[in-house]
Amino acid sequence: QVQLVESGGGLVQAGGSLRLSCAASGRTFTRYTMGWFRQPPGKEREFVVAFSGSWSAGNVWYADSVKGRFTISRDIAKNTVYLQMNSLKPEDPAVYYCAACSAYGTNWPPASYEYDVWGQGTQVTVSS
């Protein structure tokens, strides 16, 4: 079973940038479908981005709310995935979670309930 630890959250001004990290241990993340989710204060958890750990062409899916501003990347040697967040907006503050999905049904991206493993989350705060 893979374990996930997020880091990189913090306070940033609107329009600024942050890079979140998700360090995997136990197993390589390339065996999983990986996702980032976020939970704004008082709201439900929402999807941010999903991608095949093997980096299959085309298997990266961003939520419309972050498309063009957020970018995922990976470092296989470090067994780490990253979420680069640019042009942060007042609606982006949330606890951001990294998750791993070992198997999903027919729909892409996988639904949140299909993710087997979750990190503890990292807080992102945006000041206006």
List keywords for this structure.
mainly beta, 4-stranded antiparallel β-sheet, 0% helix, 7-stranded mixed β-sheet, 128 residues
Write up what this structure looks like:
The chain has 128 residues and is mostly beta strands. Helices cover 0% and strands 48% of the residues. The chain is built from no helices and eleven strands. Strands 2, 4, 5, 6, 9, 10 and 11 form a seven-stranded mixed beta sheet that branches. Strands 1-3-8-7 form a four-stranded antiparallel beta sheet, with no helix packed on it. The chain is globular, with a radius of gyration of 14 Å. It starts with a strand and ends with a strand. The model has no long low-confidence stretch (mean pLDDT 92).
- Major sheet: 7 strands, mixed
Percent of residues in helices: under 10%
Mean pLDDT: 92
DSSP strand tally: 11
Low-pLDDT ranges: none
Strand-pairing-aware structural class:
mainly beta
Shape: globular
Report, as a whole number of angstroms, the end-to-end distance: 40 Å
- Backbone CA Rg: 14 Å
Strand content: over 45%
How do the SSEs run, as a string of H and E? EEEEEEEEEEE
Q: How many H/I helical runs?
A: 0
Question: What's the short story on this structure?
Answer:
This protein has 128 residues and is mainly beta. 0% of the residues lie in helices and 48% in strands.
